[in-house]
Amino acid sequence: MSTGTQMDIYEVLEYLPHRYPFLLIDRVLSYDPGKDIVALKNVSINEPFFGGHFPHHPVMPGVLIVEAMAQAAAILTFKTLGTKPDDKSVYYFVGIDGARFKKPVSAGDQLILKVSFLRNVRGLWKFSATAEVDGQIVAEAELMCTVREL
Fold first, then answer.
1. Parallel, antiparallel, or unpaired: how do β-strands 110-121 and 36-42 relate?
2. Distance of alpha carbon 101 from alpha carbon 99, whole angstroms
3. Distance from CA of residue 117 to its chain's centroid?
């Protein structure tokens, strides 16, 4: 059950249209609308991508780490707007700047996603994002997203 500025998986499902195998947020540890969010992704050996990336040394693909950061940004956007996604609009990931991957993410890791709001200009939201494992940054990027009517 969600309390205060935390969200359990059931509330996460209300704020993201993604579902298995593309739902990459397990829990929100904290959020402050208009400011930042900290979310968690438990990385399991059962993830569908590990079978092919790479069978001899399973590593979470960097693009999925960035997608997890974008999903956290989406939740922050909707919490900031005071709304939830619906079937009349879609939240698009429209840009990535300065993406850097510093360490591989493996099965058993807990990925901590930290996303901070930078600005919103004419519906284009910009965020600074990092992904950490055991307190060490494993990836970082600036993300741009927008909500569009279908």
1. antiparallel
2. 7
3. 13
DSSP per-residue codes, 10-53: HHHHHH----TTS----EEEEEETTTEEEEEEE--TT-GGGGTS
Give me the torsion for CA of 112, 116, 121, 124, rounded to 10°.
0
Nearest partner of 120 among 71, 85, 73, 84, judged by Cα: 73
8 Å CB contact between 78 and 117: no
Hey, which residues are catalytic here?
53
Q: Are 92 and 148 in contact (CB under 8 A)?
A: yes
**Distances in whole angstroms, Cα of residue 145 to Cα of each of 1, 3, 74, 103:** 28, 27, 8, 25
pTM above 0.90, yes or no: yes
Per-residue pLDDT tens digits for 44-103 = 999 999 999 998 999 999 999 999 999 999 999 999 999 999 999 899 999 999 999 999
How far apart (Å, rounded) are the C-alpha atoms in residues 111 and 121?
29
